[in-house]
Structure formats: structure tokens, C-alpha cells
């Protein structure tokens, strides 16, 4: 185990990470945010969604360093008396869950369609790529809004809160699959003419086995880099939808929901309710983006 860790630490990728101050800073920031959000049940000083612990008398308490601040609430409270610091940790966990789940689903759809499109070719390839081209001509947020609106219109109103999470993941995923499909298709067009694929065909290996056992492992590199950057885009899309009121319910708010709630108090003096969730969102997205940009450059042989 020690030798394996040493070889990993001594690898070219690890060396590129150690010598990049931006990558190190982004990694440390992201690690702190992940620890705080995923461990919110233990890190957060309060449970902002436990009604028994909420006191309306503490509503709109300013941060601890301001006049009338309360040491119990480091970043102050919102209009319902919920601890804002604890709400940030829980809300960030919701944003991360939706962002990661939607990216995984978009990857699954895009990889399968990209492999089929590049390997089969012909009319099926043209059909899949034209659908992707049409979808890419619209902003992802509009596609997600359309899908979310259609699903909500088809489902009874009393079920909206129960299906909010899966609908949001599904809408963001369907808005992002074309990027993966086009990337995988381009790599598949190159890989399917390699000698190892020709040899597999000659020996009678099925097309499905060739695609998923031989071609797929060789096209995953660019996809993983794209997914890293896409996580930040998915989090922003979720925050935008929640800010517009069509995202997660207020009972389980994400960062976007917290920003929307705080926006109502921005000009009345309680700026911390919306500013701190906004800063947390910026730090989360920026660290993921910087890490994704570094990974893309580090894995690009033309830059090494």
C-alpha cells in the first residue's frame, strides 16, 4: 500500500498538481467545502430544518462581528431565525448532490449515444448529432426550464415537492448530454479503426462488447475532464432554477434557494442573508472550475 501511494505521489500528474499553486488552492478550498457540506450533520452547530431548535426571536440576527450579533450564530440568521452558517452547509450539500447526480446521468446518456453514433454511423449518427446540434443552439437553462415546466404541468400540484429533486436532476442532465455525446463520438470515430478493434471483430466479438469493453475505456479521458468542468455548470444551473422558484423546495433549500430568500431582504439592511450564500456558491463553482481547467491542461499531451 505504501509503495502504491508513493508511486501515485511521484507520478507526473501529482507533480503537475504540486507545482501548480492554483490547483493546490482550488483543491484545498474544494476539500474544505466538501468536508463542511457532506459532514453538515456533525460540523454544523445547528440543524436549521429542525423546527424545535428555531427561535423566531432570533430572526434577522446580524453576523457575530456586527452590533447586536449573537455568538451562537457566526454568520447571523435569516427571517425565520435559522442559523445561516448551518443553512449554508446543508444547502451546499443539496447543490452538490444535484450537480453530481445530473452530471452522472448526462454522462451516461451522452456516452451511450456517442458510442452508438460514432460506431454505427449512417442515418442513426446523423439523427443523433442533429438532435444534439438543435439542443446546443439553445441555452442549457432554457432547456432545463422547459423540461421542468412540462413535468410539473403533467404531475398533480401536491406531488411537486416530492418529485422536485429527481425532476431537477433529469432536467439538468437532459440539457447537458450533447456535449458528452459529441466528445465520445469524435473519439469513437478514431478508435473504431484501430487494430485492436479490427482484431476483436475478426475473432467474433459482438459489437456491444467491442463498444463497452474495448472502445469505452479509451474514450473516457476527455469525458472525465469535461465532467469535472460540467459539475460547476450543473451547480450554477440548479442555483438559477432554484433562484427562479422552480428548483428544490424551501423545506430542503439549496444555495440558489437561500440566495432567492435572502434577496427579499437585500435592500432592507439584512444583506448577510443573500451575500453569504452567494459567496459560498462562487467559491464552490470557482474551485471546481479551476480544478477542471488544470486537469484539462495536465492531461493534454500537447501542453506537456
Helix-strand blueprint:
Layout: H1 2-9, H2 12-18, H3 21-38, H4 40-43, H5 84-120, H6 122-136, H7 140-154, H8 164-191, H9 195-202, H10 207-243, H11 255-263, H12 272-298
Helix pairs in contact: 3-5, 3-12, 5-6, 5-8, 5-10, 5-11, 6-8, 7-8, 8-10, 9-10, 10-11, 10-12, 11-12
- CATH architecture descriptor text of the domain at 99-258: Orthogonal Bundle
Radius of gyration: 23 Å
Number of helices: 12
Shape: globular
Spell out the helices and strands N to C. Answer: HHHHHHHHHHHH
Low-confidence stretches: none
Q: Say which CATH homologous superfamily of the domain at 99-258 is assigned.
A: MetI-like
CATH class of the domain at 99-258: Mainly Alpha
Structure overview:
By secondary structure, this protein is mainly alpha-helical. The chain has a domain at 99-258: MetI-like fold (Orthogonal Bundle), CATH 1.10.3720. The chain is built from 12 helices and no strands. It has helices at 2-9, 12-18, 21-38, 40-43, 84-120, 122-136, 140-154, 164-191, 195-202, 207-243, 255-263, 272-298. Helix 5 runs antiparallel to helix 10 (207-243) and helix 8 (164-191) crosses helix 10 (207-243). The chain is globular. The mean pLDDT is 85.
Amino acid at each position: 500500500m505504501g509503495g502504491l501511494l508513493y508511486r501515485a505521489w511521484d507520478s507526473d500528474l501529482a507533480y503537475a498538481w504540486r507545482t501548480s499553486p492554483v490547483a493546490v488552492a482550488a483543491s484545498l478550498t474544494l476539500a474544505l467545502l466538501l468536508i463542511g457540506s457532506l459532514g453538515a450533520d456533525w460540523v454544523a452547530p445547528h440543524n436549521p430544518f429542525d423546527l424545535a431548535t428555531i427561535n423566531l426571536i432570533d430572526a434577522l440576527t446580524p453576523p457575530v462581528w456586527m452590533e447586536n450579533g449573537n455568538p451562537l450564530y457566526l454568520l447571523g440568521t435569516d427571517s425565520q431565525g435559522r442559523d445561516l452558517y448551518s443553512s449554508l452547509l446543508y444547502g451546499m450539500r443539496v447543490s452538490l448532490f444535484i450537480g453530481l447526480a445530473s452530471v452522472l446521468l448526462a454522462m451516461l446518456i451522452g456516452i451511450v449515444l456517442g458510442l452508438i453514433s460514432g460506431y454505427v454511423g449512417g442515418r442513426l449518427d446523423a439523427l443523433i448529432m442533429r438532435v444534439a446540434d438543435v439542443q446546443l443552439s439553445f441555452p442549457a437553462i432554457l432547456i432545463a426550464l422547459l423540461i421542468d415546466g412540462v413535468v410539473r404541468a403533467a404531475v398533480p400540484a401536491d406531488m411537486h415537492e416530492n418529485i422536485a429533486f429527481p425532476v431537477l436532476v433529469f432536467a439538468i442532465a437532459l440539457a447537458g448530454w450533447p456535449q458528452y455525446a459529441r466528445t465520445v463520438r469524435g473519439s469513437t470515430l478514431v478508435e473504431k479503426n484501430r487494430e485492436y478493434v479490427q482484431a476483436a471483430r475478426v475473432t467474433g466479438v459482438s459489437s456491444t462488447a467491442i463498444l463497452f469493453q474495448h472502445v469505452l475505456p479509451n474514450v473516457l479521458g476527455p469525458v472525465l475532464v469535461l465532467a469535472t468542468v460540467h459539475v460547476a455548470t450543473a451547480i450554477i444551473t440548479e442555483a438559477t432554477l432554484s433562484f427562479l422558484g422552480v428548483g428544490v423546495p424551501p423545506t430542503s433549500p439549496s444555495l440558489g434557494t437561500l440566495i432567492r430568500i435572502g434577496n427579499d431582504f437585500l435592500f432592507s439592511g439584512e444583506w448577510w442573508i443573500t451575500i453569504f450564500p452567494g459567496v459560498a456558491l462562487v467559491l464552490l463553482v470557482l474551485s471546481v472550475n479551476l480544478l477542471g481547467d488544470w486537469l484539462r491542461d495536465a492531461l493534454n499531451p500537447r501542453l506537456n
